[in-house]
Amino acid sequence: MSASLLIIDDSALVRERITSTLETFELFSKYHEAEDGLDGFKKLLSEPIDMILCDLEMPRMDGFKFLSMMKSRPELHNIPVIILTGMNDRIQKIKGLENGACDYITKPFDPEELVARVKVHLKIKRLQDDLKKSNELLHELSITDFLTGLYNRRYLIESLNREILRADRKDGSLSLIVIDIDHFKRVNDTYGHQQGDQVLQIVSGIIKKELRNYDIAARFGGEEFFAVLPDVNVDEALLVAERIRSAVEEYRFENELSDLELTISLGVADLSYLSCQTVDNFIKLTDDALYRAKANNRNCVELARHYLV
Fold first, then answer.
1. Can you list the domains of the chain with their CATH numbers?
2. Is 223 an active-site residue?
């Protein structure tokens, strides 16, 4: 696994000794150097860094100021910093650790101690990175519908609530579209559930393609989907809904599904239609529009009617 080290010290000799010592053990694939905290911070912002060895006493910007600047940037908090300090500087060691350093090495340093401490913190860093990736993956799985790859019902509710609050705070627009596949039970009965799953995946892809990157597409359950459109009024949402309806109707399936002619029904609502702006009321409003689309021979878009809650 490749890793990069940043050495910040005003002594070129110290930087050279550290590099030559660590290179023997092939702990890092890249070594970056800086003469003081200011140059070190610039390097830190411009290069991917996995670990930092930082002197405390330097011109222009010392190690304490460097640690303070790292504290101000949350994205840098997981980078371990080992401070370099004099043999008898007990107070500086404590101050450095209190300011965010994970360990210290006294100068002149012992090569074996340097390697040992770097190995320990490099291992911890890798374990933390692996844990972070695992947590991110678990979070992704917890908000994603496994079949379609769209967001799931849980994330829809959370994001819709968030967008309602944001629209209310900024006095902005927010539209919601509900999409339901017409006669989907017939698809499963005729072609089988495996092909029915394929249909769900294809429709999901069409929905996502017709939305903007920051719109939210979610599978609510079964063959029902929702699209959350921030900063979109109801007239614009109707156009989006019609594009989705038309794209599904015009899609030509292949292989076992080659004779399938699929349609969808859609309901559209705008947040301004509600006097009580809650997620449940917003969803109910679009569902009412969807029921009317179903009653109107399907394969159409219906606009929600204004009502007071």
1. 4-140 (3.40.50.2300), 153-303 (3.30.70.270)
2. yes
